[in-house]
Write the structure tokens for this entry.
Amino acid sequence: DESTVRKSVKAVKAAAALKGYAPDHDYVHPVPDGFMAKGVSTYYNKDGNPAGQWVKSQADSQRQFDMMVEAMQSLAEGIKPVEPVSVPKHLNADLMCVYPMGDPHIGMYAWCKEAGENFDVNIARRDLHGAMSYLASNTPATDTALILNLGDFFHADNKSNTTTSGTPVDVDGRFSQVLELGMLAMVDTIDIARKKHKKVIVHNTIGNHDTHLAPMLAIALKAWYREEPRVEIRDTASIHHYEQFGKVLIGVTHGHTIKKGAVGLDAVMATDRPQMWGQATKRYWYTGHIHSTNRAELTGCTWESFRNLPPNDAWHQGQGYRSGRDMCAIVHHKDHGEVARVTCDISIARNAG
């Protein structure tokens, strides 16, 4: 009816005005998709006609995020799914191998004269492949594998080469190239695991560097493995993730939202998953973010942060950070919790890769 049409026209005009297009007010220079008009200044001649105009724009963060989701979903539709591989033999159903990946920072660029070592997206993929190959070769053939991307998988979150909050970072290669090679690095890791284990569960944790790209990575991997029933890609929507294995409960978060050390994570786990908490007798929190090994006993659970494989970038090198670099695999028994651990130093990973 007439009132519905009138409301629709009003809504369309309002949306157009946000883009800088309102001809009734001489706004005739709309800003591109992904931006919104911050302000429009028009000056008129003596006859009252527009003589010039300044249009100020700013990024529309929500629209840019929606565009990124649309682009990744479109890309995912075109991904040809991998074919299932045969199930390995002689698997131990009482054990689970956990592969925590501390802050891979795919796409980070480092120059040896500034940071002490060269690093780029190809080196990052090769190091991750080498570490995962070594760890899978030195852990038992368990029924279940849990791959934990602990966040900051990508170094930058957009084409502007900044983190989610806008901090500029040193990035290697074009944005689309980093996305492609980063996804393939995760595919490498998952493929190594599915040749060793019957079921592979993957968590992609949201980090402060890649708040938007972490869910995109999960979407792409779901498309990649949609025909492989032995690979489960968990949803990436929450800051905190949980996985239960018998009497073992594992909580996963990047660590950038922890206010002080790991204080409070025990209460978060008990509140978020009260039923799992009651069923478990061995409870763990695994985090990244601080690029160093830390461990603490909380009330009813243990917290641990993990090192990462990449070297420092120029900024961190200049600030004096010098933590070790490695990746590990942790073997959990369904009743007894952690029973073994294998560590792969970066020097081993490069020989294995």
